[in-house]
Amino acid sequence: MEFATKAIHAGQEPDPTTGAIMTPIYQTSTYAQSGMGEHKGYEYARTGNPTRTALEACLASLENGRYGLAFASGLAAESAVLSLLSAGDHIVSCDDLYGGTYRIFDRIMSRYNIETSYVTANRVEAYEQAIRPNTKIIWLETPTNPLLSLVDIRAVAEVAHRHNVLLVVDNTFSSPYFQRPLDLGADIVLHSTTKYINGHSDVIGGALIMNDQSVYEAIKFHQNAAGAVPGPFDVWLTLRGIKTLAVRMRQHEENARAVANFLTEHKRVEKVYYPGLASHPDHALARRQMSGFGGMVSFQFKGSLSDVDTVVRRLRVFTFAESLGGIESLVCHPASMTHGSIPREIREARGLNDTLLRLSVGIEDISDILRDLEQALA
Q1: How is residue 354 annotated by DSSP?
Q2: Is 170 one of the catalytic residues?
Q3: GO molecular function terms here (predicted)?
Q4: Which residues pair with 86 in a beta bridge?
Q5: Calpha distance 200→185 (Å, rounded)
Q6: How many CB atoms lie within 10 A of CB 331?
Q7: pTM: predicted TM-score of the whole model, two decimal places
Q8: Is 136 in the active site?
Q9: One of 26, 42, 67, 98 is an active-site residue; which one?
Q10: Tell me, what's the pLDDT at 348?
């Protein structure tokens, strides 16, 4: 099946008992067992739930993976990956990444003597140079959050596997519609399903997809043992959102391209970050590695922090809020919101300063989106 068909059907056969087309919400905490060790595949809902099984199968299919695991949040999924590490291990990570991920590395994993080295996201050679004998994971976001740099997944995968290191790729910004890292050599794909996967800003969730059975079994053990699993209603909402993923992503990208072109020409804008622009330093890689450029646009504003506050207060179609990937347009100030946990000196050294705004371009009529930006920037 092609992508849009899999999004609607993969893992979601009609209910065998009733014939219901939509996967039912199995709102139960436990399951009847006929005898010692005899049951119908489910024992306890933390361990497994039929609604969750459908979501995990669908996500695996969309990423061309063998195994999918759903979690209560994107950060819960990240924690499950990090459960593969032991005290004294080492992580190599791209330097431009979600503030919550930095917070886990810096304030939680460091307590267990697990150190993280950060390298410039789009410099492949830097990853190999940073590898140590105790390195166990290379961690990528591509495109990165919020500066939208690209990482050559295939090239970094070759580096990782040459050194017997797992490659983890956060694919949240692209969604599997525009990029499938497992096909390029990644070992684990991570999603905050809160974002484009669900697409309607009404669920918190996360997911991991992989091909290696031993990696799957290790993370599956953590999923059950630590218990950060999503509830069946959240899973059902995510499944419902996935069904329109293909059509939503096409519209997100079409609108984002128009927004990026508009901002590039605006006198109040200093710099635009969007891999779909020919001027983007990683544009050629984006064309080669992705089937589209996504719906995220960041831009550097000419003015002060006070001017930025004025702009976000004037916006009417865009809502000033955390998160991304919903059908509605959102504007975020990373320095004080999503990346506020990163110390100022580190943020600014990476190019993330107080006048950067990140747009999650929605699927509203593009004329309304552009008029809203024009009046707010005026």
Answers
A1: T
A2: yes
A3: cystathionine gamma-lyase activity; cystathionine gamma-synthase activity; pyridoxal phosphate binding
A4: none
A5: 30
A6: 21
A7: 0.96
A8: no
A9: 98
A10: 86
Are residues 273 and 145 in contact, defined by beta-carbon separation less than 8 angstroms? no
Residue in 89, 152, 170, 234 annotated catalytic? 170
What is the DSSP code string of 97-165? --HHHHHIIIIIGGGGT-EEEEE-TT-HHHHHHH--TTEEEEEEESS-TTT-----HHHHHHHHHHTT-
| Banded model confidence at residue 134, pLDDT cuts 50, 70, 90 | very high
Beta-sheet pairing, 166-170 with 135-141: parallel
Look-up: residue for tokens 């410099």? 123
Active site residue 132: no
Catalytic residue among 6, 52, 136, 195: 195
Contact 78, 190 (CB under 8 A): yes
46 is catalytic: yes
290-348, pLDDT tens digit by residue?
Answer: 999 999 999 998 989 999 999 999 999 999 999 999 999 999 999 999 898 888 898 88
Query: What is 3-242's CATH topology?
Result: Aspartate Aminotransferase; domain 2 (3.40.640)
Question: Any residues with CB less than 8 A from the CB of 170 and at least 6 apart, and which?
Answer: 97, 98, 101, 139, 140, 141, 142, 190, 191
143 upstream amide cis, omega within 30 of 0: yes
Angle at 114 between CA 109 and CA 118, to 5 degrees: 90
What lies within 8 Å, CB to CB, of 75 at 6+ separation is 100, 101, 104, 206
- Which CATH number applies to 245-377? 3.90.1150.10
Neighbours of 264 (CB within 10 A): 14
- Say how many C-beta atoms besides its own lie within 10 A of residue 283's C-beta: 16
DSSP code of residue 83: T
With vertex at residue 89, the alpha carbon angle to CA 87 and CA 92, rounded to the nearest 5 degrees, is 145
